[in-house]
Specification:
Strand content: 15-25%
Shape: globular
CATH topology: Rossmann fold
CATH class: Alpha Beta
Number of strands: 8
Largest sheet: 8 strands, mixed
Length: 322
């Protein structure tokens, strides 16, 4: 089940506190005993990668190689995702718990300060990580996400709000049947549906990349996925956005239907000094659809806003812009 190690040779930039870091992987035990998997690669600034729901790193397929020449990348799997253990049946799996897990993983790697990159659900995790463990967070890159209420915002209608409880009830009364059905859903019809809908930009995304994602969906137990989704749907970081005091880059996709672009606009306007990149024709899969744009902007943000000492003196906090 291990993921392939990704490496790249990129021009190095002057940066503070660079240190060698060989590729490695391992496990950390969370507070409820769940074994959490992590992998680490690269050299330079400490960066933590936080996935979306049902994802175990595929969204970073092109981001990681672009950054590991100048960043010490730490990626981890949520409970029940990838190579991490399933959590106990009644365990909390909301963004607050995931933020605590993320802090545990970062500290176990020896990271005193870390820049957090989050995609989708990972945006909520990153925001909670700043709030609950702000001493270790020195910057945030929030990609195709929302500060909260993601069930309400999905497709800008209430379909998911009503669908989740129905599937959850079915899973409670017919757990074996629902789990078996979920794991037996062939990936080809899902791939066809995605490619013939507006969920992805078929002119930009590689079919093989999307097929790889759908091929891994069944690895997460369906009832656990619903618990994650329900918890994220009740979470809202909006009240403390105005208090965030670290550099922030918000990356949004103009045609994102999972977490609509207007939520990213709102988030960027609410966080003091946040920068906003709005990518035309992008969807929720933006990092694997238009990786060149995303990677270049992230690298620029890291160098200009976070690499001391010049950044603090020469880069005042800009106003959100497109």
């Amino acid at each position: 089940m291990g993921r392939a190690r990704m490496t790249a040779n990129l021009p190095s930039e002057p940066a503070a506190a660079k240190r060698p870091s060989a590729s490695s992987a391992g496990f950390v035990r969370s507070s409820d005993g769940t074994e959490l998997h992590f992998d680490r690669q690269g050299v330079g600034r400490s960066v933590l990668l936080c996935d979306g729901l049902l994802c175990d790193g595929h969204i970073w397929k092109y981001v990681a190689p672009a950054l590991c020449g100048e960043c010490d990348l730490l990626h981890w799997h949520y409970p029940g995702h990838g190579e991490s253990q399933d959590p106990p049946e009644q365990a909390d799996v909301g963004p607050k718990r995931l933020a605590d897990d993320a802090a545990l993983v970062a500290r176990s790697a020896g990271f005193d300060r870390v820049t957090v990159l989050g995609h989708s659900l990972g945006v909520q995790v990153a925001l909670e990580l700043w709030r609950r463990h702000r001493g270790i967070v020195d910057g945030l890159v929030l990609i195709c996400g929302s500060p909260g209420n993601i069930v309400r915002d999905f497709h800008e209608n209430a379909v998911l709000k009503w669908l989740v409880p129905v599937v959850d009830v079915a899973g409670r009364f017919l757990p074996s049947a629902v789990t078996a059905l979920w794991r037996r859903i062939p990936s080809d019809p899902l791939l066809w549906l995605a490619m013939h809908s507006r969920e992805v930009n078929t002119r930009l995304i590689k079919t093989a990349d999307l097929a790889q994602y759908f091929g891994r969906l069944g690895r997460v137990e369906i009832r656990l996925a619903l618990r994650f989704l329900e918890a994220a749907g009740h979470h809202d970081a909006t009240p403390f956005l105005r208090d965030i005091d670290v550099p922030v880059l918000v990356v949004a996709a103009e045609q994102d239907r999972f977490t609509p672009a207007q939520r990213s606009r709102f988030m960027a306007s609410a966080i003091p000094g946040a920068e906003l990149l709005m990518v035309p024709q992008g969807t929720h899969s933006l990092p694997i659809e238009q990786p060149e744009i995303v990677n270049l902007r992230i690298r620029r943000f890291l160098r200009e806003r976070l690499d001391p000492p010049a950044a603090a003196a020469t880069n005042p906090r800009p106003r959100p812009s497109e």
